[in-house]
Write a structure and sequence with these properties.
Layout lengths: L8 E3 L4 E2 H11 L4 H8 L9 H12 L5 H33 L4 E7 L2 E6 L4 H15 L5 E6 L4
Parallel strand pairs: 4-5
Antiparallel strand pairs: 1-2, 3-4
The structure holds FE2/S2 (inorganic) cluster (FES).
Length: about 150
């Protein structure tokens, strides 16, 4: 299966998701990680996402991709995306939520989808805090669903 159908956060350092990478690689005829890093920033930080960028470049160019490499990239991506979301929650979401008397009770991360269950009675301001912080600090392409436990 093509990894293009699996929308995900590829570069956690620069907040760049796979749909934007596929589009830019095609539109800009980018052929290397260095060209991608120059055009989008992705891959130009810690370098952990570079194998995944290589995979996208290979897919767009029609070169075969080793399924083992795809599985490994998927596992790293899943772990690192959840870690990036948890870091943003610890650094900027929780301090703000404390200010409005709310807290996070559950978190689920699946590709670009993030579901956050807030404490009972948290209200729309708490949901806005979560959404704004994750879109700003992790990736603007995330689909963040933050809801009060009472709404679930
Ligand atoms: S995750 Fe892409 S450079 Fe760090």
């Amino acid at each position: 299966m093509s990894s293009e159908s699996r929308a995900r956060l590829v570069c956690r350092c620069r907040g760049v998701a796979s749909p934007r990478l596929f589009e830019a690689v095609r539109a800009g005829a980018l052929a290397s990680v260095a060209e991608v890093a120059k055009a989008l920033g992705a891959g130009g930080g810690c370098g952990l996402c570079q194998p995944e960028i290589e995979e996208i470049l290979a897919e767009v160019a029609g070169r075969p991709v080793d399924p083992g490499v795809t599985l490994e990239n998927e596992a790293i991506c899943r772990e690192e995306t959840r870690a990036a979301v948890e870091r943003a929650i610890a650094r900027s979401v929780q301090p703000q939520l404390r200010g409005v008397g709310a807290r996070i009770e559950a978190l689920a991360v699946d590709g670009l989808r993030v579901r956050v269950r807030l404490s009972h009675g948290a209200g729309p301001e708490a949901a806005r805090i979560v959404r704004d912080a994750l879109l700003r600090d992790v990736c603007a392409d995330l689909a963040v669903d933050a809801s009060d436990a009472a709404d679930a």
